[in-house]
Amino acid sequence: MPDLPEGTLLVVTLIAMFVGLVGSVLPALPGVTLIFISALVYAYFTGFEAVGGWVIALLGLFAALALVADFIGTSYGARRFGASNWGTAGGAIGGILGALAGLLFLGIGSLFGLILGSVGGVFLGEYLKRRRQGTRDPGTEQPRVEPARTNQGDWRRTGRAAGGVFVGYLISAIAQGVLGLASVIIFLLAL
């Protein structure tokens, strides 16, 4: 087992946990998973004396729950506010691409890129769905006759779905923040 000063290890662990706690609310930074990894590394280097296997298992469970909360929160938000499967998939893909673009290229940061990419992805997914359905009634060659309001209503619903993605992120951030705070408190109590 490597010989590291325990005080230095604790300070580095607590700094990493603080970053994880902030990251549990802001998608630009790693969150509850970082808190779990920090606790695991601390436990390993201290021989699992103060922070034992049960604490590590509980923090691992919290990290897994945070990942599930992130996925379910955003999907639920989009679906709850009217997104189709196409819109939900577009939001997921757009969120990933937006986070990467925001971080690497645009300088706006991962958080804003993630939100903007998700909202844009929902819009694009819904647009592609409507385009794929075409303007003809299924089973006939007759053009579909739709009142002008239907298209406007579709885009209104798409706008609501995009807003639902944002609401889903907020729900997910709250759940992850609670799990992150609980993880840090449990770690500190174990010390």
UniProtKB/TrEMBL annotation:
Keywords: Membrane, Transmembrane, Transmembrane helix. Residues 134-147 have a biased composition (Basic and acidic residues). InterPro entries: DUF456 (IPR007403). Coiled coil: none annotated. Pfam families: DUF456. The chain crosses the membrane at residues 12-45, 51-73, 85-105, 166-190. The keyword Iron does not apply. Residues 133-153 are annotated as: Disordered. It comes from the Bacteria. PANTHER family: DUF456 DOMAIN-CONTAINING PROTEIN, IG HYPOTHETICAL 17883. This is DUF456 family protein.
